Automatic annotation (TrEMBL):
InterPro entries: Epimerase_deHydtase, NAD(P)-bd_dom_sf. This is NAD-dependent epimerase/dehydratase family protein. Residues 6-137, 179-284 form the NAD-dependent epimerase/dehydratase domain. It comes from Rhizobium indigoferae. Gene3D superfamilies: NAD(P)-binding Rossmann-like Domain (3.40.50.720).
Length: 360
């Protein structure tokens, strides 16, 4: 399959920009197009609207005429669909906005692609581990199951862990793709719809969908303006402002933090891998880390005391307790092997946050 022209929707975002820099290193790619609406929540009011190595098309994926126009003009061989509204908590209050961008935007993409000349193409979707909800747990009887989302009523009593059907403590394990899905926010539900629309909408076409479910991606370049995403970037700003970090629940929330360059490498692999099908593929570091530990590493890297945090017992509806990817499919199908340790990644992030501050 030729890959002369590549379209990256959401190409001016955190992962998109890093991906475009990587695509620019591939001499066989003739043209890269970044489609983005420069969402003010992500980019602020006066963003730079160009990027080396790509043509920028400014507009929204939820503007059907614009999106179809971009597809017609550039006729891409390879599409990375990254544009999305991305905040879990915010999605409860902005339901139609999340649906417009994430669901309708993906529908317009698929319908637009189907109108292009019939030839082999590939669509790589940036989906999310959010589709799992709480993810895989082992019950006291040894069965693997996905618990129902936690209730605010229970969490307000300080009960954060999950229990099996007989009321015994359940043990979290790495989540494989085949587990029962229980999206626990509007954001998560829209990401799952994106997956279904891509796979069902491209059935019987020569366009191969590749569905990737990212864990918590972090690293230099993540928006620190957006209060709804990117916990480590937000913590970084708070540390430099001399604030005490508010660590939710009992400090034991676990995430699979995966460094942005590992995700970009996986996207590049997904673009060329010969053995993919349309079943989803997890992408994480495969390592579980408490938010508290990640916060302590960042405090240390930014020269603050490890004690500058407070375990508050606060919680947010839709937050899951434990996230960890089972990367077996990514390893087998893509040859994916995450390389950047949390400590190295956090050091890179800290350097970036500090240099951004000094440039202000
Ligand atoms: N960063 C993570 O931890 C993570 C985890 C799981 C999944 N993902 C997925 O990866 C993708 C990229 O995430 P990111 O972290 O780079 O986010 P980001 O917010 O930095 O980038 C998203 C980009 O999409 C653009 N955008 C938003 N709405 C748009 C619209 N209507 N039309 C055109 N462009 C629009 C924004 O301006 C932004 O540049 C998203 O689909 C997200 O759901 C990210």
């Amino acid at each position: 399959m030729k890959q002369d022209t590549v379209l990256v929707t959401g190409g001016m975002g955190f992962i998109g920009r890093r991906l475009i820099a990587r695509l620019a290193q591939r001499p066989d790619i003739k043209s890269v197009v970044a489609l983005d609406n420069f969402h003010p929540q992500v980019h602020g009011e006066k963003p730079a609207k160009s990027i080396e190595g790509a043509i920028v098309e400014e507009g929204s994926v939820s503007d059907r005429a614009f999106f179809e126009g971009v597809l017609e003009r550039h006729d891409p061989d390879l599409i990375f669909h990254l544009a999305a509204e991305t905040g879990t908590g915010q999605s409860y209050h902005e339901i139609s906005r999340y649906c417009d961008t994430n669901i309708n935007g993906t529908a317009y993409l698929i319908e637009g692609l189907r109108k292009l000349p019939d030839r082999a193409r590939r669509l790589v979707l940036a989906s999310s581990r959010a589709v799992y909800g709480e993810g895989a747990y082992k019950s006291s009887l040894g069965e693997i199951f996905t618990p129902k989302p936690r209730l605010s009523e229970t969490m307000s009593k300080g009960i954060f862990d999950l229990y099996d059907s007989v009321g015994e403590a359940a043990t979290p394990v790495a989540t494989p793709e085949g587990i029962t899905l229980r999206p626990s926010s509007i954001y998560a539900s829209t990401k799952l719809m994106q997956e279904y629309i891509c796979v069902q909408g491209l059935d019987n076409t020569r366009i191969q969908p590749v569905i990737l479910r990212f864990q918590n991606v972090y690293g230099p370049g993540q928006s620190s303006r957006n209060p709804y995403t990117g916990v480590l970037s937000i913590f970084g700003q708070q540390i430099l402002d001399g604030k005490i970090l508010n660590i939710y629940e009992d400090g034991e929330i676990v995430r699979d933090f995966v460094y942005v360059d590992d995700i970009v490498e996986a996207l590049m692999l997904a673009a060329v891998a010969g053995s993919v099908d349309s079943e989803p593929i997890n992408l994480g570091s495969g390592i579980s880390t408490t938010i508290r530990y990640a916060a302590e590493c960042l405090l240390t890297e930014l020269g603050a005391s490890k004690e500058n945090l407070r375990i508050s017992g606060d919680f947010r509806p839709g937050d899951v307790r434990f996230a960890l990817a089972d990367n077996t499919r990514a390893r087998t199908l893509l040859g994916y092997e995450p390389k950047v340790s949390l400590e190295t990644g956090i050091a890179q992030l800290a350097r970036h946050i500090k240099s951004e501050r000094t440039q202000r």
